[in-house]
Amino acid sequence: MKNILENEVIYITGASAGIGYATAELCLSYGATVVITGRNIDNLDKANQELLKISSKVISHNVDVSNESEIVDSLQEIHTSFGKVDGLINNAPSIHTGKIIDLDLDAWRTNFKANLDAVFLTTKTVLPWMQDAKKGAIVNVASVVGLKGVAYMSAYGAAKAGLINFTRATAIEAAPHVRVNCIIPGAVLTPATKRAIPDDELMEATINTIPLKRIAKPIELAKPITFLLSSDASFITGASLVVDGGKTADLNAGN
User: Fold this and answer.
1) Cβ neighbours of 81 (radius 10 Å)
2) pLDDT of residue 76
3) 214 alpha carbon, distance to own chain's centre
C-alpha cells in the first residue's frame, strides 16, 4: 500500500482541517503530489507547514470554491504545471442552518455554492483532462444529512442529496476510463462538528445514537476516500459508501 499513489497529482478542496486534511496526509504518505485548497489563508498556511513534514510534494492554493474563477483558475494552474490531474476530492463544506419558514432564498442558495455548485465546476473542469488521459478518479464527500431528513438543515441536506445523485450521473458520463464515487460520512470529529456540538452533554447524546458508540476520526474517512482514488478500487464507480458507524442503519424504534 505504501506507494499506491506514486507520481499521481491529487487535488483536494477544503483541506486545511478535518477530513480533507487527513486525506491529504494519507495521499502524501502514499507518494502523491497533493494540492490542498482552503478559504482561510492562515489555516491553509498552517496545514501546509504541517504537511511539509510528511512530504515536500504539497501545494496550497488559497481558494474560495464558491467563486467560479478562483476554483477554475486554480485547477488550470495545476494542469498547466503537471500536465494532468489524476484525482479530485470534492470535500469543501458549507453548512448554514435555519427553519424553512425563516430561510430567505440567498441563505438557501449559500448551502449549494460550496456543496454542489463547486463540485459541478471542478468536475466540468477536470473531466475532459481525465477523459483525454483515459485515467482518473473523483471522490465526492456528501453527508448522511443527504439521506435523512434533518430539521433546520433542509438546504444543506438538499445540496448533499443532489451531490449523491450528481455523483451517479457523472460516473455514467465519465465511463469507461474515469471513475466517480461518493463517500457519505456521519458524525466526524472535525472543527465544524465541534462548533455544532459545543458541550459534553450534547456530544454524549450524539454518541449514544450511533451504534458504534463513538464519533469517527477524520482518518477513518480518509482511508476509504484514498481507497476509492486508488487502482485497488478499479471496478468501483457510481457507488455511494456510507461511513457513519451504523447511524443510518438503525431505525431507533422504541428508543
Assistant:
1) 12
2) 98
3) 21
156 is catalytic: yes
Q: Exposed, middle or buried, 54 (CB in 10 Å: 0-12/13-18/19+)?
A: middle
Which of 11, 21, 30, 156 is the catalytic position? 156
Q: What is the DSSP string of 153-177?
A: -HHHHHHHHHHHHHHHHHHHHHTTT
Is the N-terminal amide bond of 198 cis, ω within 30° of 0? no
Does pTM top 0.90 for this prediction?
yes
> Does the pLDDT value for residue 48 go beyond 60?
yes
Number of residues that this document lists for the chain: 255
C-alpha dist (Å) from residue 144 to 11, 104, 207, 222 = 24, 24, 15, 16
Query: Per mean pLDDT, which range of 37-51, 121-135, 187-201 is the poorest?
Result: 187-201
Percent of the chain residues past pLDDT 70, beyond the cut: 98
CATH of domain 9-186+220-240: 3.40.50.720
Q: Is pLDDT at 50 greater than 60 in this prediction?
A: yes
Which phi and psi (to 5°) does residue 204 adopt? -65, -40
- For residue 125, CA distances in Å to 73, 128, 130, 195, 242 come to 10, 7, 10, 33, 27
CA distance linking residue 254 with residue 140, whole number of Å: 34
Encoded amino acid at 202, one letter: L
Q: Cell triple for residue 85?
A: 490531474
Phi first, then psi: what are they for 126, rounded to 5°? -85, -25
